[in-house]
Design brief:
Largest sheet: 3 strands, antiparallel
Number of strands: 3
Structural class: mainly alpha
Low-confidence stretches: 200-207
CATH architecture of one domain: 2-Layer Sandwich
Distance between the termini: 36 Å
Order of helices and strands: HHHHHEEEHH
Strand order of the largest sheet: 1-2-3
Length: 216
């Protein structure tokens, strides 16, 4: 699976990954593109553009990210990284038990517009808070800086899935959707879908997304 950097710069995929703990979100990206109503996604291919994702589908999306975090935590280099990964893992649990109606995080357009940190400005010990790998261990590091703080920097491949699902900074949990130009448009489209299916947005709190008790 090519990294985001390789995709952006037209670099052929390497024969083997250069980083031991690099996150692999190919399954997540594939499922997200099926469920998301984000037109800025390059692979948006929903079979029925008017369909609302089911609770089971949404829970599965969050579970994919949880599984990756759990895998990273198994060989975390230190307690601090393990605790951080556990906090992210726990932050997804509520969304699995009570899945949201829509993918409410940031859009692909938001990710594409994030500030890229030039390789020459990275220090030898700078590392991603999620995978704990040093940025410069990657031949082509794609490091992004979030709007909340200049020190909140991550590998794009690591932070992208969290941002697309939660829309918050993994470190300080600042809401970043307010910087997303497509966020409001997406919400408006989802509300129209609900109305077409007889599920007005204002009745959202009363709607039972889990009539069969799958998540209790």
């Amino acid at each position: 699976m090519a990294t985001q950097y390789e995709v952006e710069h037209g670099i052929k995929e390497a024969a083997a990954p250069t980083r031991r703990r690099q996150i692999d979100m190919s399954s997540f990206n594939s499922q997200l593109h099926q469920l998301s109503d984000d037109p800025s996604s390059p692979d948006a291919q929903r079979h029925n553009p008017h369909a609302v994702p089911t609770p089971v589908e949404m829970a599965g999306l969050f579970r994919l990210v949880q599984d990756q975090l759990s895998t990273l935590a198994q060989d975390a280099p230190d307690a601090a990284n393990r605790d951080f990964l556990q906090s992210l893992f726990d932050g997804l649990e509520g969304d699995i038990l009570n899945p949201p109606r829509e993918v409410a995080g940031v859009s692909q357009e938001f990710l594409d517009a994030l500030d890229r940190v030039p390789k020459k400005t990275l220090k030898p010990d700078d590392s991603c808070p999620i995978c704990a790998e040093k940025f410069l261990d990657d031949k082509y590091p794609l490091v992004v800086e979030l709007q909340c703080h200049h020190s909140h920097r991550f590998d794009m491949d690591c932070v992208g899935p969290w941002l697309q699902l939660k829309g918050t900074c993994p470190m300080c949990r600042t809401d970043l959707t307010k910087y997303d130009p497509r966020r409001k448009d997406t919400s408006d489209r989802i509300k129209k879908m609900w109305e077409r299916e007889g599920k007005p947005a204002e009745d959202d709190e009363e709607e039972d997304d889990d009539p069969h008790g799958l998540y209790n």
